[in-house]
Each structure stands twice: as C-alpha cells, then as structure tokens.
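User: Sequence in, structure out. Go.
Assistant: Echoing your sequence, followed by the structure tokens.
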Amino acid sequence: LSMAEYHQKIDQLLVKLKRRSTLSKDLAILTAEALLKVVTGLKGNNPHKMIEEIRTIGRKLAEAAPSELVVGNIVRRILFIVREELANLQQGSKVEVTSHKDDDQAAPSMLLRSVPSLANILAQDIGQPDGASGGAGSDNVDSVPSNFKQAVIVQIRELVDEIEGIREQIADQAMEHIHANEVILTCGQSSTVEYFLREVAKRGRKFEVVVSECAPDLEGHAMALRLAKAGISATVITDAAIFAIMARVNKVFVGCSAVLANGGIIATTGLQTVALAARHHSVPFVVCTGMYKLAPVFPHDQYSFNELKSPAQLVTLGSDDAAASREVRVLNPSSDYIPPELVSLFITNAGGHNPSYIYRLLAEYYSMADRNL
C-alpha cells in the first residue's frame, strides 16, 4: 500500500469505530489487520520504531471508540507479540552462541534457563520500567535478529486466524455443559451463544431455550427466530418475567462485549437482572466469550465503560408534552456491568475459567508496560 492508501484504510476504520455499528469480533479483526499493515509497511528491523508506531495508531483507534475495549485489547496484544517475539529470538541466539563456546555439559543448563516461561516474562515486565519489557528495550538495534519483523507478521496473522475461529473453538466445548432436556436461558442476541447452542442441537441433543427479549432493542426476538430455524425449541419472554421463569431454568448462557481484569463483564443492558435472578435461584451463570475480549482495566461503578443512548427508544413525547419533558430524566444505558461474584464460569477459546482466575490470564496476553496506551 502507498502512504495515501494506508492512511485511507486507517481513516475508514476510524469512521466505523465512531459509528458504533460494527460487531466486537469484526472490530478486533479490522484492528489487527490495520496494525498488520503498519508493521508490514515499516522499513528496517527496529523494535523501538515498531512499538512506537503501533502505539500511535492504536491510541488513535482506541480514542475513537472508548467504550469498545476490544480495540485497545488487540493493540496491547500485538505489542505483547512484538516484545515476546524479540525476547524469544534473542534468547534463541544467545543459546546458540553459548552452545558453541561452552562444553557439552554447560549447554543444556543454559538451554533450560533460556526456555520462555510465564515467570520469565513477568520478571522482565516488572524489572524493566517504561516500556522496556520483553526485550524490546534494548538500545542495541544491531542485536535484533534479521527475521524479527517476519516473525511478528506471522504471529499477527495467527492472531487474526484465532479470532476468526473463536466461535468454533468455544462451541467444541458445548456438549460438556448442556445435557439432555435441560432448560437454558439467554438474553438478547449473541452470535457466540447462538453457535454454541446450535452445535449441541446439531449433535442430536434435545433441550429448550428461553430467550429474554432484551428491551428496548428487542434483540431476543431475532435470536429466538434463528434458534427456531435451527430446530431448537425457543420461547421468548419479557424482561419482567425473568425472575419468575428462573426457577425452571437449569443454566444461563450469555455473551459479553468485554471481560474486565477483576472477572466482571460488560454486556447487554438487562443482563445484570438475569445475573441477580440466577444467583437468587442458584442457577449457574455462564459467559461464552473469546479471550480477545479480556481487557486489563478495572471498573469503578455501573457506568464505567458505558454510554447513554438516545432516550427516544424509551419515550416519545409530542409537542404538548414539551414543557413536561424538561422535568423528566430518561436514562438509556448501552450496557450493564456484571460483577465477578455473579459469574459462575467463563467458557473461552482457551478453555473454562473461574472469574477469580481471569486476573492471572492477563500476564499471558499483555505486557505490564502496555497497560496504558
């Protein structure tokens, strides 16, 4: 791509982010592909320049849609890939050089010390301040392996492939969680949950799904229709009936837009009601989500990482009501925050995890130096 085409691609992505009309999965793929073009277009093999360029573009993308945490997640994940690849290649070079210089007994011990591990990554993150973690802080550019840039490009492409196959990887675990003749409740519309449920039905297991309509968008109507077309028994209920029906439900399966560092989630408006009803009736509340939605940030209150949408979805006032409307305050939040104590299990492409384990996963996907873009 020429510089003009490159900037045009970034501008098109910024427009999509500002319009808030793209699914989280698609945003993640678009962000990864945009940063892949950034890395591919860079001249030379300088990790400092690569990290700074990714940070600059990534910060611009994240600021265009602050509530879309998945954009910042992908930027941090790619920065972690850059640091990790450089560290691995440099460690591999050191092992090779040492094996030629030392005797046969010294080489195996050096190899063992150089094997990349979570402990080594954490030690580097904590010990090297100001973005120098993961080996990318070395001032000697000449020590960077010649295949460094190509290795980063390969890893970013693998990340895109991983995100594209998220639903299939999560659905492979479905038979372990849904049993015959169970009653499942879900809320609103989630392509991951839909694929999860359809996978169970495809393998011949019979069960029933209760779908909350999820006002005011009424996404549950479309969800129930698609499930019915797949041969699944689906029943739509109003949001007000969630607590009453919960006593007959065996499990709750929902999606989310973000998983926070404390194990809580950001999800469709109305899901907190479902989570509270599930806890009251001791019904497992299970979240199906990809690890690319894991965000290294903490919530402060119910309105953290939230936005208020137009009240026109909730009320319509005529000209005669104009004076009275000034005294009415209408809140129409775009999402709910569900704290970790209301979540029973996360089913991800990396397996099942308890909310208390989510914080440990951060070190496997992000560097401490990149928590703040």
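User: And one key feature?
Assistant: Confidence is low (pLDDT under 50) at residues 105-116, 125-135.
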